[in-house]
Structures are given as C-alpha cells and as structure tokens.
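Quick start: load a record and inspect it. Here is Isochorismatase-like domain-containing protein:
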Amino acid sequence: MGLDYLREKGKDTVIIVGLQTDYCIDATVKCGFEHGLKMIVPANTNSTIDNKYMTAENSYRYYNEFMWNGRYAECISFEKTLELINR
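Running the structure step on this input writes:
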C-alpha cells in the first residue's frame, strides 16, 4: 500500500496534481487527509470537465478555493510548491 511506503520513507506530505478535480483528485485529497498526510495542491495543476451542475471552471474554484484549502489541503502557488520540493 502506498501509505505504508510513505511511512517507511518517513514522508508525510503528498503533492497532488491531475485530472478530474471533482472525482479522483477530491477523493485522493480527502483520503490522504484522513490518513494524516499533509496534502498540497499547487495552483492550476488539476482540471475537470463541465458537468450537469457546474462548469469546469466553477468546479475547479469550488474545490481549490473553498472545499480543500485550509480544510483538507494546502492550496498554494506553483512557485511555492517548487520551493518546497527544492528544500
């Protein structure tokens, strides 16, 4: 399991990027949070498509600006993410 691997390596932070903000990314962010991981979502590194209820842009903003940030993840700039990686 990936969680065991991270713990064996002494890692507790995951940077998540990808597709389907409202499905795959959301589930991964919340699952990681529930397992005690620090989840980081860099700005403009996830996307989705329009659905029956919201445009892709509205979904992106909803999850990145309201749902995750300060609750399940730290949503930060891409530049700040690179700084964290290069430490």
